[in-house]
Amino acid sequence: MAEYTGICCEYLIACCRQASSDRRSSEIQITLSNFHFGY
User: Fold this and answer.
1) Cα–Cα distance measured from residue 32 to residue 28, given in angstroms and rounded to the nearest whole number
2) Which of 3, 11, 20, 33 is the most buried (most CB within 10 A)?
3) How many domains does the structure of the chain reveal?
4) CB atoms closer than 10 angstroms to residue 38
5) pTM
């Protein structure tokens, strides 16, 4: 499960980076990063 979760996080972050032009997407990326490091 841990490996699967890691893949999902990387996939989501990659999607956020592609949509970095959107201010809302940037906030989501930061939230995901904080969750990843906090986890």
Assistant:
1) 6
2) 33
3) 1
4) 6
5) 0.27
